[in-house]
Amino acid sequence: QVIVHDVNELTEKLFPIVEAMQKHFSAGSGTYYSDSIFFLSVAMHRIMPKEITRVIQVDLDLKYKTNIRDLFDEFDNFPEGAVIGIAREMQPVYRHTFWQYRRENPQTKVGEPPPDGLPGFNSGVLLLNLEAMRQSKLYNQLLEPTMVQKLTEKYHFKGHLGDQDFFTMVGMEHPELFHVLDCTWNRQLCTWWRDHGYSDVFDQYFQCEGEVRIYHGNCNTPIPED
């Protein structure tokens, strides 16, 4: 069954919820109404009908090497309290974004590579447990403008990647809200940061063991042919 949702209608519902966070996580200098759609996943639980309890949201620049139905099984692996399934970011983009916080907190795991660090998240493949999102008092508190402001000030955070930035910042503070997907479910291919100042540590973020299940050709990177 295919249901088509009107983008303008969704944006109209989204805008009041995400308006406050857009100035922190958008590329533009202000808060643009049209930008709201880049925060769809953040508030999906507020605008989708109650009977929809689980959603997989994916980028368009993906290539599937396995049945997407297998990804649904990951919902069963969510630990108690987790509301979103998401893979780690595979470039040192957040090592860069959190530079000031990292300088002030030299022992922090924020922005450090896996397996022990907190490299941030990539929102190309998202598992949204809408029912859990609706019921999580903590998650809904974090959507409030005052909480967003508080966290962005704590981490000196200014991003430009929409929902991904929000999830990353929240994940630094409350990792228990997230089920971390294996990198093979979102094998990102972009290598932009390798050539922009981070060649010495790049491979620590970029390595991914195992048989790839979804390729992600982010930043217009070609996806390998079969």
Features:
single chain, 226 residues, alpha/beta, 4-stranded mixed beta sheet, 3-stranded mixed beta sheet, 10 helices, 34% helix, 14% strand, globular, XXLT1 xylosyltransferase
Describe this structure in words.
The protein is an alpha/beta fold and 226 residues long. The chain has one domain. The chain contains 10 helices and 7 strands. It has a 4-stranded mixed beta sheet with strand order 1-4-3-5. Strand 6, helix 10 and strand 7 (214-216) form a beta-alpha-beta unit. Helix 1 runs parallel beside helix 8 (145-154). The longest helix is centred in the N-terminal third of the chain and has 19 residues, at 7-25. The protein is globular, with a radius of gyration of 17 Å. The chain starts with 6 loop residues before the first helix and ends in a 10-residue tail after the last strand.
* Low-confidence residue ranges: none
Sketch the major β-sheet.
4 strands, mixed
Return the domain count: 1
Order of strands, main sheet, comes to 1-4-3-5
GO molecular function, one term: xylosyl alpha-1,3-xylosyltransferase activity
InterPro entries: Glyco_trans_8, Nucleotide-diphossugar_trans, XXLT1
Protein name: XXLT1 xylosyltransferase
GO biological process, one term: protein O-linked glycosylation via N-acetyl-galactosamine
